[in-house]
Amino acid sequence: MNAHILPRLGAAALLLGPACAFAQSAGAVAPEYRWLTFAVFGLIIAGTLCVTWLAARRVKDASSFYAAGRSVSGIQNGWAIAGDYLSAASFLGIAGLISLYGYDGFMYSVGWLVAYITVLLLIAEPCRNIGKYTLGDILAFRNDPKKAKTIAAISTITVSIFYLTAQMVGGGVLVKTLIGIDYEVSVIAVGVLMLAYVIFGGMVATTWVQIIKAVLLVAASLLLVFFTWLPYGFSLPGFLQAAVADPKIQMQVAKLLGDPATQMSAAELGQRFLEPGLYLKNPIDQISLGMALVLGTAGMPHILMRFFTVPTAKDARTSVLWAMGIIGGFYVLTLFLGLGAAINVGAGKISAIDAGGNMAGPLLAQYIGGGADSILGNLFLAFVAAVAFATIVAVVAGLVLASASAMSHDIWVGVVKGERATPQEEVRAARISSLIVGLVAIVIGIAAKGQNVAHLVALAFAVAASSNLPAVLLTLYWKKCNTGGVVLGMTVGALSAIALVMVSPNMTYPNAVRAQNEPVIAAAPAKIAAAEATLAAAATEADRATAQKALDNAKAALAGAEAKVASVAGQTTSMVGLEAPLVTLKNPGIISIPLGFLCVFLGSLLYRDKRAEDAWEELYVRQNTGIHAEGAVAH
Amino acid sequence: MDMRAKTVDWAAVNADPRFRDLHRRKSRFLWGLMAFSVAYYFLLPLGAAYASDLFRVKLWGPVNVGLVFAWSEFLVAWGIAFVYARRANREFDALAAEINRDALAQAAAVTP
Q: Which CATH architecture has domain A2-507+581-625?
């Protein structure tokens, strides 16, 4: 196997030039193989639409629309949670981080799994026992229903829109990078498809779309890891040794370290890839992000909602166990995907197509199938691209359903109609709300084109952790918690998280952008001239290819820097009028989460609410025993 | 649902020694596991930042302490989930079902 892979490596190196050249214009899939991608896309879309058509006949009332009639099994729900949770950011993003930065990328993935411990131990079962359809239902159990539902709906929609924007923009860019479809077209395609699932099939279809996506994702990852690891006889040290000894990885580490790298041997550089510190530099920021993940996941409305789809609290427990197995297993596999891409494709080629490394997984798939010129390579790539597309649609569907439920069930039925709506009216309201949220998502997706939205995912988790989680946790476990605390805590928690991000280094600061890019532009003409001279002097075909690549890179660097400077032309301050960030913290959690908890405490102690006190014993007994939990609906 | 819910005497269930016992056992177990899991998780970024020399120590070919520790995070998370689920399935569910049954029987007897 080793002998077999070496000629392929050489072939891959030769292909580097042309592959990069078309990547900038068309996408990772070569135009002549695009039909393959569309065929795989078509199969997945046809399959999921079939499921939606079957589901639509079962969606008759609110319970089936919001909660799939509470008839989803624990195992099914576990797969659906994994499908809801593993966004394109984890599927492609983490493998990409590992392929570019090694150990730190893998370390980053751990928090996303540990988050489910909080869900399992503190949230899933009590919420299943006392909840109905939404976050608002849980908070309205003890607190003033109208106030609690209003604030819960606002928070649900805020969190979901942040996450949704990141998914729509990320998805649009991804589909463009993969197959070269226009950004706007892919945003609309994702939006329309997701709306078809949600509006016609409600939670039933959304659940199945998420299950299908999770199964595809796991299958794709297992397949890639199998073929990546096979040449090393499935030896762990053997595989890692190959990474450490790989010249491309050593070069990448040298590039990341800069000057200190000159003192290090090749073996030391390679080993450095498996050590921390190449990507995550500030431990306070990591702890802050870790807090947002560990507490925020349990406060994510679209995750909470999944626990209302199972018949009992025991099934809720089973579903978290399955979800943890799938999600954790997936992150363990990403280490192999990331390192495999770094060995076989190389950080240079990966970041040439997408600076964030998102193309590591797809390019690895193409390599394993036989490279950019082979049918099998392009079939693998098409499969991974189609899985990525299914991933985006499934996550977006869950988010839209969560916000639409908050709008129709909490606001329209709960607050406006005072709980007086017929089941038909409620389902109609839910469908109209889904349409509104879906259209808003499409509009935001198109309007935010070209914006850096990666930090919005972290912000969504931070808001959920600072606003929803303190309110839910203390409503469930603290006798004195009441409406005053919930309203104050959720407001302050959410606003402080958002405000801290607005003044953080995540925003774009025009002066900093200019300071960073103007030297690049100034140095570019000399670099391009030098590259042209090398190209003209190149004697052999291989030299010419290398020189052409260097020239292309120099031109791309200039174009990129010019575009960045042009995007801030005429501006001197960030969106909120700052010339430089006020705080160094990128993730607000470490400040906003304690603040959220503190305000729930203070608000509860300062406010008198007889209903919250009277309902405590009922809530506490019910959340622990499951007496009178909402039952399953037989179909 | 609310009409039916009112017929259970929540204060009586809350005062039931079996419920107090369930509550005590569950709380101690849950919050203990939670504290352990959070502490263990934050050791990873803290270790990477402040004990990087330890993380670099090679154990098995290129496999170093840092990698083993990161893998152990997965095993510990799964282990906690397994330990919790086993005890909940075997012990807490049975206790809750018993309390649940008696409370509903009580409510049925009181309701005319």
A: Up-down Bundle (1.20)
